[in-house]
Amino acid sequence: MNPESSQTPEPIDEWLEQIQPEKPEIDNPENSSVESVLEPEASASAVDTETSDVSTELLSLIDEPAAEVPLATNTTALGLKTESVSQNNSLYAEAEQRLTQLQETEAALKAEIATLQVTYNTLQTQLSDTQTAMGRIVQESLGQLEQRKQALQISIEQLERRQERIRNEMRTTFAGASQDLAIRVQGFKDYLTGSLQDLAAAAEQLQLVPEVRERERPAVKEAKPAEPEAITPQFAQQQFQETTKQVRRLIDQYRNKPDYYGPAWQLRRTFEPVHAERVSNWFFGQGGRGALRTMGSRLQNTLIASAIISILHKLYGDRVRTLVLANTPERLGEWRRGLQDCLGIGRPDFGPDRGVVLFEAPDALAQKAERLVKANQLPLIIIDDSEEQISLGILQFPLWLAFAPDPKTMKNYDDDF
Predict the structure, then answer these.
(1) Which tens digits make up the pLDDT trace of 132-175?
(2) HEC profile for the chain?
(3) What is the pTM of this model?
């Protein structure tokens, strides 16, 4: 037997032993599945066919006698097998590398999705909390406003009930009724007292016992004293500049240097610029004959009238007679008290033959003014603002002052009580 042929089977056996461990790697299902994912099915089937052919060929070579297999053929088959295995290994490595990359990308995407999901959940929670807080704030604000509204309504109702209760007490209780009654009674009392004094003075002048007539003696003609001329006051003309200066000086004195303890018929109260303006307008703008808008209070009107009376007494002395017209005894009582307070005069200065005379009817006042004019005296007519109309008989006299009610603020003095 040839020695070379006896030595040939040994390397073949070694080659088969090297091939057999690699064969399970080829038949491994995991690698096959990876190869099926990454490569086309045609390539995988081609590789398996080629491997099976190589294995069949090798087995056939092994079964044949060693002497009949040439060494070059075995070497070529071994090179092809090695090249196929190395190609499969490179494919597997590339597939594993791409799989790893895909797994890493998948993990990164999952992490990013999880982060976005957490952010979305956080924003959703914050939005829900914000909406809840806003709703709670709106409800609380509405509740507070509703409570304040109810409290204000309750306060208004309480005040209205209190006002109505006070009015009812003023009308029905003894306190309110007695106060109103006392004011009216006092005014009527003052009026009656003045009227009785006037009546007593007139009764004293009556001759109840007939005079004893003496023998008629021849009349002796005596020179009659010259009667004083009638006075016609003028305050707005240039020829009476001296009188105008004196009037202005007295107004400034009352306004700047009031004398609260001066003699009778002199103003004793504080004289404001608004009062001085009304008095100046009556003297110089209206010439002592006109109407002034009421001051809104009978006391203020009395103050203006007192200033005018005081100035006229300074100019003309006792020849000035003041005639006051009001339509109720209560208002006449107020005028009496106001003039006494402002001019420092007393009850003896009120009467038909004295300084101030009070009238309720304009006809009686006009008759009295006519008698005073005939007696060469100077009547000053003062008309209360309660008089709605002025008699034409009053307008003929040289001095008259009417207080006209303000049409915007018509006021009934009876409501003050």
Answers:
(1) 999 999 999 999 999 999 999 999 999 999 888 888 777 776 55
(2) CCHHHHHCHHHHHHHHHHHHHHHHHHHCHHHHHHHHHHCCHHHHHHHHHHHHHHHHHHHHHHHCCCCCCCHHHHHHHHHHHHHHHHHHHHHHHHHHHHHHHHHHHHHHHHHHHHHHHHHHHHHHHHHHHHHHHHHHHHHHHHHHHHHHHHHHHHHHHHHHHHHHHHHHHHHHCHHHHHHHHHHHHHHHHHHHHHHHHHHHHHHHHCCCCCCCCCCCCCCCCCCCCCCCCCCCCCCCCHHHHHHHHHHHHHHHHHHHCCCCCCCCCCCCCCCCHHHHHHHHHHHHHCCCEEEEECCCCHHHHHHHHHHHHHHHHHHHHHHEEEEEECCCHHHHHHHHHHHHHHHCCCHHHECCCCCEEEECCHHHHHHHHHHHHHCCCEEEEEECCCCCCCCCCCCCCCEEEEEECCCCCCCCHHHHC
(3) 0.46
